[in-house]
Design brief:
Rossmann fold; binds NADPH dihydro-nicotinamide-adenine-dinucleotide phosphate; 397 residues; 11% strand; binds 1,2-distearoyl-monogalactosyl-diglyceride; nine-stranded mixed sheet; binds Protochlorophyllide
Length: 397
């Protein structure tokens, strides 16, 4: 039954038979996917589609696999059809990530893979904003555990989908924490999640994106104005400052050393801002090392101040009450989740935003422009050092 339904629901592009390319219709497969693949996807505890948990013979893994066996652009002679792109968005269960998932899904051109730590929340979130079933799936990812990151990457590879875009969006902000808390591997939680988790994820998935035949491939890391000390917002104390990275090199574990990258006293708000500097430096180091070789576009952005998101959940209630009107009427830096989602979706899929190594921002008319990063956030030597230390911490070097 489910397979019949799959057959009728398959997009026309999916059943095009190509002379060249990796069409597996000739093999012992069912619409481009082997039965063993169907079962594997089905049994994968990390892969959940929107039809319920671990149901057998589901439609969505079949679609995913079909996408993998369909070349990005159909062969000459046939009408040129671009297959749906596959985009992973971390932290798509709320705020900017959810709004971006919705914006991309609505185009009908993307399979959005929502990489989230909470299945149920992600499923409810997708439903609540009306993302339609055939355009998304949910995979489990907890960025505060490197083991979870590795499992996620393995599960994604096993799904057989090509990876066309990766959006490192998830983050936590702990402005009122008096003491540091830690990831599974013992790194300070904000930098461990926002930077190290994403660093490992993107390193593990780089080859998948390299191998994709999609005409444009993008790797986006969400940055922020508050990590850039060349702005007013970036000068609100405590300011971001990675120093000489001695705390990071020491493991950020607060055992015999600091939980802060610069080796100083713990400050949750600073740790978040530092993590955003890491995100922006990481993007540039990726660009430097891999853009020419892979053609992948690496970019970061400040989407605007989305003052209503879950990011501020740990802030005091008075802040949460006053922050949105403050940003709306005083700084005028406020943007709605919907608008911010459109901006990030643009960076993922707008042909005109294909430049690599760029930090995008938007002016008050919502026009994008290449923004200037602060001195620290564009320090090439720091980016290299950060890369090397991070590699060691996540077990890649
Ligand atoms: C640290 O505080 C925190 O300690 C840390 O936990 C972390 O959150 C970190 O950067 C994040 O900040 C920094 C400190 C900076 O900020 C504060 O003490 C609180 C400021 C709260 C600002 C947001 C709310 C502002 C609400 C204004 C009212 C809006 C009403 C809108 C009504 C619309 C009507 C139509 O502190 C400083 O840097 C001090 C510098 C102060 C300069 C002030 C500039 C003018 C801005 C005007 C707003 C002033 C509000 C101050 C009152 C805050 C009361 C909570
Ligand atoms: P939200 O809190 O709404 O969204 C953050 C997302 O990250 C949530 O989906 C959350 O999951 C997820 N997340 C947190 N920890 C983990 C983890 N360990 N593993 C997997 N996912 C995790 O905040 P925003 O939408 O505001 O933030 C999104 C991005 O935008 C962040 O990178 C932030 O730095 C950036 N940004 C935000 C601005 C703003 O004004 N809000 C301004 C500039 C940049 P869950 O739903 O389960 O909690
Ligand atoms: Mg900030 C002038 C413009 C401006 C902008 C665009 C932001 C964005 N902020 C601005 C100004 C100010 N802020 C001023 C003048 C103050 C002092 C009153 C101020 C304060 C402030 C606080 C306490 N702002 C904050 C906080 C937070 O806790 C938020 C933060 O730093 O999170 C790390 C925050 C933010 N201000 C912004 C943005 C985008 C944030 C959210 C931070 C982020 O997502 O990176």
């Amino acid at each position: 039954m489910a397979l019949q339904a799959a057959a009728t629901l398959l997009p026309s592009a999916a059943i095009t038979i190509h002379k060249e390319g990796r069409s597996s219709l000739k093999e012992s497969t069912f619409f481009g996917v082997s039965r063993s693949e169907i079962y594997r996807a089905d049994f994968n505890p990390l892969f959940v589609n929107n039809q319920g948990f671990n149901r057998r013979l589901q439609i969505r893994p079949i679609r995913a696999q079909t996408a993998a066996t369909t070349p990005a652009i159909s062969s000459p002679g046939a009408k040129k059809t671009l297959r749906k792109g596959n985009v992973i968005i971390t932290g798509a269960s709320s705020g900017l990530g959810l709004a971006t998932a919705k914006a991309l899904a609505e185009t009908g051109k993307w399979n959005v893979i929502m990489a989230c730590r909470n299945f149920l929340k992600a499923e409810r979130a997708a439903k609540s904003v009306g993302i339609s079933k055939e355009n998304y799936s949910i995979m489990h990812l907890d960025l505060s555990s490197l083991e979870s990151v590795r499992q996620f990457a393995d599960a994604f590879k096993r799904s057989g989908r090509p990876l066309d875009a990766l959006v490192c969006n998830a983050a936590i902000y702990l402005p009122t924490a008096k003491e540091p808390t830690f990831t599974a591997e013992g790194f300070e939680l904000s930098v461990g999640t926002n930077h190290l988790g994403h660093f490992l994820l993107s390193r593990l998935l780089l080859d998948d994106m390299k191998n994709s035949d999609y005409p444009y491939k993008r790797f986006i890391i969400v940055g922020s104005i508050t990590g850039n000390t060349n702005t007013l917002a970036g000068n609100v104390p405590p300011k971001a400052n990675l120093g000489d990275l001695r705390g990071l090199a020491g493991g950020l574990n607060a055992l015999n050393n600091s939980a802060m990258i610069d080796g100083g006293e713990f400050d949750g708000a600073k740790a978040y801002k530092d993590s955003k500097v890491c995100n922006m430096l990481t993007m540039q180091e990726f660009h430097k090392r891999f853009h020419e070789e892979t053609g992948i576009t690496f970019a970061s952005l400040y989407p605007g101040c989305i003052a209503t998101t879950g990011l501020f959940r740990e802030h005091i209630p008075l802040f949460r009450l006053l922050f949105p009107p403050f940003q709306k009427y005083i700084t005028k830096g406020y943007v709605s989740e919907e608008e911010a989602g459109k901006r990030l979706a643009q960076v993922v899929s707008d042909p005109s935003l294909s430049k690599s190594g760029v930090y995008w921002s938007w002016n008050t008319n919502s026009a994008s422009f290449e923004n200037q990063l602060s001195q620290e956030a564009s320090d090439a030597e720091k980016a290299r050092k950060l890369w090397e230390i991070s590699e060691k911490l996540v077990g890649l070097a």
